[in-house]
Amino acid sequence: MTYKSDIWEVFIQSKNGLAHKHVGNVHASDKKMALDNARDLYTRRNEGSCIWVVKTSHIVSSESEDSESFFDPANDKVYRHPTFYKMPDGAKHI
Amino acid sequence: MSTLLKYTLRIADNSLILGQRMAEWCSKGPTLEEDIAMSNIALDLFGQANGFLEYASKIDGQKTADDLAFKRDASNFYNFCLVEVENGHFGNTMIRSLLFDTFYLLFYKELSKSQDENLSALAFKSLKEIKYHFRHSQNWIIRLGDGTKESNKKVQESLNNLWKYTDEFFEIDNVDQIMIDQKIGVNTSLLKKEWTEIIESTINEAKLIKPSTIKMITGGRDGKHSNKLSSLLKEMQYLPRKYPNAKW
Amino acid sequence: MSEKLFQEKIDSEKKIEPKDWMPEKYRQHLIRQISQHAHSEIIGMQPEGQWINRAPSLRAKMILLAKVQDEAGHGLYLYSACETLGISRKELINQLHEERAKYSSIFNYPTLNWADMGAIGWLVDGAAIVNQVSLQRTSYGPYSRGMIKICKEESFHQRQGYEIMAEMANGTKEQKAMAQDALNRFWWPSIMMFGPHDADSPRTGNAMKWKIKRQTNDELRQSFIDKTVPQAQVIGLTIPDPDLKWNEQRGHYDFGEIDWKEFWNVVNGNGPCNKERLDHHKRAHNEGRWVREAAKVYAEKNKLN
């Protein structure tokens, strides 16, 4: 392209009640075009009930070199999971 | 030929011929995304053509939908002259689409109230599709009209060129009158006002100028076509005509 | 991260994501392979696209258009995957136009009759699917996700081709002749799609080590031939290879020697349609320039981007 085209990330909700899921991206020069292009490319097989498009440049991502400090500290917080707790025999619905 | 058959073929032929034109864009779009969009539109149009031709085949009682598509001559095609116009550049195609989509949006809305259940069901399904086509061509005309000087000039020229085909939308002949009287058909002459309003507001937003009234070209709905349609059909019908006994 | 840690990650079947460290050669290899794959999808629209307006029934017309449209979509998924490696689609298209990037040579053969639509779907898509199924497990995350999506969507492509072939092989005498003719012309180019023999494929080593490729050219080719030969028998067509026969001991079909001179000739730009395909793409790209510019200017003026 003559200009560097804008890239938009596409998120599709496959049906009401479910979360929007990232499916890929499209190039488009404006918002409407981004939405239309996403519709034309990513819902050709009834995949959608709602579409979000977000400019790729607006997404802030964690960096892979930060991944240890970001995610490893959660490893030993086992008390956040229900299986950590001992329940007396016979206790139900808890 | 029965009145209902001719009426149904007119609708089917518009979709088929415009679909054929839109499909010519495949692998030639201005962006890859737009290539996909135009294929989607062509697929909708072929689906509509197929639906209306199936119904026409039922009315006819002998010919199949494919016979009707692939074994009729140009003089027995009843589409608007507008839809057989060659694609030209992308802006030209979008002007042709805008003029047609705006009309068909209004037309299908009315046809979906037809007393003929088949026509009303087909129109109801097609209406959803045409709404999207209209959104697509309208957005593009606004972008191109209000884009660069070059793009504005190009689409203005196309608008001026294609304007002469638009009166045909609103003509009422015998076939229409009988269908209107039976509450099957649409009185398209009543759609002109709304069509004009939508087109005017779109071209205003697109910073385009409405063409002055010129000599109109009509006749497509009675089988009077330019030689563009014969060349289109020659290509489209080539295989079934060359091998009449073959099944595909 | 060192190359050693990178290799450990690959060896333990962890996917590499765009923000992860990767050796420059890994990145370059991926750009070359993914873009070649993307360009093949896009150039591959042309030989079939020429028949959409001549499809012999409404059903065939809609199916073919939907299939060619899928190819555009798949090209787009692949360009997206490639862009995550830090190269723009614009640059990828430039590489194609300046012949610095290649696409599959199969698309440099002409489509002469309707049976070619069958042969392309059955053989060319069939061969591509064998390759793509294997690539679903490729080590680069965005490429792998693209392949999974593509494989899911392409499952109908081979069937539509085989259906056309079956219909024609059982049709009139003329139709059967067309079907056999299409098979004759597309068989060898299809099995060449898997590339040179492993021994003559210098980059295979790295690609396998980095798990970009999961099976070698020869393994994939054999698997395609083993699948396809019985399909030809079912519809009564003859594969144009006198040396083709089942080898009980190997549990595979043996097949004749590929004409590598022809292969390299087409790869190097001397196939029947190389120039036509590239010119078509350049023309469409150039004719669309004013449209892309206008859309950009419109968005900037109206602050919609």
Helix and strand topology:
The complex is a heterotrimer of chains A (about 90), B (about 250) and C (about 300).
Chain A: E1 7-13, E2 21-27, H1 31-42, E3 50-55, H2 67-71
Antiparallel strand pairs in A: 1-2, 1-3
Chain B: H1 3-23, H2 32-60, H3 65-70, H4 81-84, H5 90-111, H6 117-145, H7 149-162, H8 174-181, H9 192-205, H10 227-236, H11 238-242
Chain C: H1 3-11, H2 24-43, H3 45-49, H4 58-83, H5 89-97, H6 115-135, H7 141-169, H8 173-192, H9 204-209, H10 217-234, E1 245-247, E2 252-254, H11 260-270, H12 274-287, H13 289-301
Antiparallel strand pairs in C: 1-2
Helix pairs in contact in C: 2-4, 4-7, 6-7, 6-8, 6-10
Please provide a written account of the structure.
- The complex is a heterotrimer of chains A (94), B (248) and C (305).
- Chain A is an alpha+beta fold.
- Chain A has 2 helices and 3 strands; from the N terminus they run ββαβα.
- Chain A has a 3-stranded antiparallel β-sheet.
- The longest helix of chain A is centred in the middle third of the chain and has 12 residues, at 31-42.
- The termini of chain A are far apart.
- With 248 residues, chain B is mainly alpha-helical.
- Chain B has a single domain (3-241), classed as Ferritin, core subunit, four-helix bundle (Ferritin, Up-down Bundle), CATH 1.20.1260.10.
- Chain B starts with a helix and ends in a 6-residue tail after the last helix.
- The model of chain B has no long low-confidence stretch (mean pLDDT 97).
- Chain B has 11 helices and no strands.
- Chain C has helices at 3-11, 24-43, 45-49, 58-83, 89-97, 115-135, 141-169, 173-192, 204-209, 217-234, 260-270, 274-287, 289-301, and strands at 245-247, 252-254.
- Chain C has a two-stranded antiparallel ribbon with strand order 1-2.
- In chain C, helix 2 (24-43) packs antiparallel against helix 4 and helix 6 (115-135) packs parallel to helix 8 (173-192).
- The relative contact order of chain C is 0.11.
- The mean pLDDT of chain C is 95.
- At the B-C interface, helix 2, helix 3, helix 6, helix 7 and helix 11 of B face helix 3, helix 4, helix 7, helix 12 and helix 13 of C.
